[in-house]
Request: fold
Amino acid sequence: MKKTLGITLLLLAVCLVTGIANPNFIKPYNAENLIVRSSLHGILAIGAAFVIVTGGIDLSIGSVVGLIGTLLPWLLMDCGWGVVPAMAACLALSLGIGLFHGLLITRMKLQPFVVTLCGLMLYRGIARWLTHDNPKGFQNSYESLRHLAIGRVEWMQVGGYRLPVAAILITIVAIIASVFFTKTVWGRHLLAVGRNEEAARYSGIRTERLLLLAYAVCSLLAGMGGILFALDVNSVAPDKQGNFYELYAISAAVLGGCSLRGGEISIFGVVIGAVLMRVLYNSIILLDLPDQLEPVIIGLVLLLGVTADEVVKRWRTKT
Amino acid sequence: MIAQSLLLASRLTKRFPGVIALEDVSLSVGQGEIVAVIGENGAGKSTLMKILAGIHQPDAGEIVFDGKAVSFASVKEAQALGIALIHQELNLADNLDVAGNVFLGREPQRFGFVDEKSMSQATQKLLTQLGADFTADASVEKLSLGQRQLVEIAKALSLDARLLIMDEPTSSLSAHEAEALFRVIADLKSRGLSILYISHRLGEVTRIAEWVVALRDGRNAGELAKHEINHAAMVKVMVGRDLSEAFPRSQRQPGKDALRVTDLQTQANPKHRVSFLVRRGEIVCMAGLVGSGRTEILRALFGVEPPVAGEIRVDDKPLSPRHPCEAADAGLALVPEDRKALGVFLPESVTWNISLTGLQRHARAGLFLNQSVIQSDAESVSTQLRIKAASLDTAVGTLSGGNQQKVALGKWLATKPDVLLLDEPTRGVDVGAKREIYQIMDKLASDGTAILFVSSEMEEVLAMSDRVLVMHEGRLAGELQRSELNEEAVMRLATGQHD
Reply:
């Protein structure tokens, strides 16, 4: 909990500075959009955290976002599928992708980095080949479906601010994930696998199943994110949609207190991490900084975060 | 003998935040003398060694080496004077050959390149002196632990060491390799080297030491001259009381068959078929040299490396374990030898560790953690095993080796196993904790648990077992009843000699 305190304070500080420097920051239009974006990235980050907690990694998240984001409008608009079968197919495919990764990692003993790196290229390529790189979108149809990503809950208004539907979605995902890790046997077992896979096996834990579960959840959430991002932007460029999102997700998880060695997680921290990344991006634009600096700033903050964490850890073991 | 001391340390004190690790400890080692330092875990042995080897600097006290007052700020400075430490966990680079390791960091050079030839010749000379059965260009990866130890010793000799500090040198050696090491030690002594020898194994201390220094709670607890060195005297001076009942043994009657193994073929030794039986209330030991296939049998039984073939019956129910969880469900439990890597989760709490194996069984609705059972199980197990920790929320990594081992064992006690498999249950554990572990084994057996344990400590093999199964090169070389038990009989079978 102390770990998340630092990053929460940092988030508040960035918000405060940006809010004072540019009052547009707290205007409903900007704030609501920021919440939508943070929520969607937060869903991806929670997925990434499931894998990172095992000591693994998933580099294919952004490509899954791209593939599913392309597939949904393609199925609906070009193939004429109904909403329910199209959504089900997208979620089933992303779940299948996760199981595929998990099986390669647990059965074939391939390294997560390599498996998901191949996934990164594979799914991006399939999305582009499927559409010949033509952008896909929903035009003016599927208003109510798009509501999932861009909608606001009109009756939950406070002083002109409306609650985005996406915020409700991530709250549900975060609560389920948090309960999973703190209250369930499987969550505890997954943490044990992340701490020490061999010791977990020696303790009679079905480590393979849990790893499979982690990769499946990660890709499923990436697929869910892919649907929402597509609904949000409405015009999906197969070659660009979701590019680098896996890196944002991993960064958010690390900022939120996940160790890449595995075994440590705070879902609240991961969500705050994702929010911080989006707020930083938003601040750069609002403060009129050259937006080429965005990766520089995010890189520095991440570096600062992990260094501070390490320093605090050492200081604590000394006393 | 003080007069010709090579090393004279007096009133060394070392404080770490919150603890005094060493207080007013004095010690002297004569030229060509073998001095053993004994003491329970936490008695200050390691700290003393680290100070003498230059890893730590003392807060007070002085060290006189070869008649001159010295102080070293680093291992390099201690080495330059002629003091070399051979670590308990050997520090060798697996990817280099023997010569590369011996000269690591100070490779002889020719025109800026490593002079492989002179490096290899110098190493070969040292290896010949030590009577090594491998060559300077052998890959360290392929050497046994005993051979690796010789590489470390060769490294020390190449540094012109005059005092060798050996920290638990036999802890991972087979009896055979340990013998070879004792011969090397005797040879080094005859060449005038002094040796400071740290060991838990009092048997070997009795054999090789000429002087024993005992530490207790960071202070000198007493010293023994050569003629006074025996097991009972050492235990008494270390622990500060008599431990006449080092090996508890209650009256037990073996019950019905708990574990029946027929023609078991392990992945490691698929050519041999092993059959044996362990009854309820019985403590059976699997003895043999390191590498004789004992651990592999435990691993096969527990499904870590599923057996190739053979029949296993637990309480007369067949078991073909493909995964440890299947073995655990059948009533087996395994406490592995490498507790830090496999037995416990060091960063997690005592409660977390102990509760891990029972989470699923006690889960609410099959999925949710049952906090009250987790707490009460952890409390009852830690009371039963007398785990010494500041609290049950303490990270296991901060506990002593003996208490870590109790946690590794306690993890399974809550599951009430029918058959308990223990691999080297007292390795790296101090005398006091050893005795407690023996008591636990005896108690569990009295309560009807079948215990199969692997051990390389002869004392323990002889004292704790109702029967001994002796392994040799992957096969079961023989079985000894308690009445036939003695060291020679075990060693004869373990080394493959026939009558």
